[in-house]
Amino acid sequence: MVPNRFGNLTVITGPMFSGKTQRLRWYLERRARAKQKVILFRKDTDTRMEITHGPAPCFSSPYFTEETVNESIINLSFGEAISAVGVDEAQFFKVAFLVHVETWRQMGIDVYCSGLARDAQRKDFGWMPQLLSQATHIECLTAVCINCGREATESYSILPMENQVKVGGADSYQALCMTCYSHFMRKNP
Fold this sequence. Notes:
It contains six helices and nine strands, in the order E-H-E-H-H-E-H-E-H-E-E-E-E-E-H. It is of the alpha/beta class and about 190 residues long.
């Protein structure tokens, strides 16, 4: 950790199946290979890690709870040399989590967040819009449209949505280009 330096905020976004988590892990693993200490926070209600993402031994906290994030902030405050913090599935966290991100950055720690900017109804998802507005670097990834093969920018729910937060994978969502998304939404609003 370099003192007297404000940490960067990199936000990785895109639709489902665009590789956001893999990109986040790439950033953190690159830092870990350079002998820098990193920490990863993940919402504990998202249990897909073992299915889509293998655990990484260099990360000190594979799942997020209010207790572990507060514990980590206390440890960071007492000089634990963490150089980067990763937050996966950032859209699931409460808006108050922005305070933690800002605290880390003020401590000179680089923060990497991945998440969906929009939900399956194309509405802002969680606190991602605020996070994107504060980012020093933004990566917008795309997937491949499962219907036509073009660049997919949208996440489409193949099951009825009861509320904005519905954790799922290929059994619940498809990546679609805007044309196919619009077509599917007209057929199944």
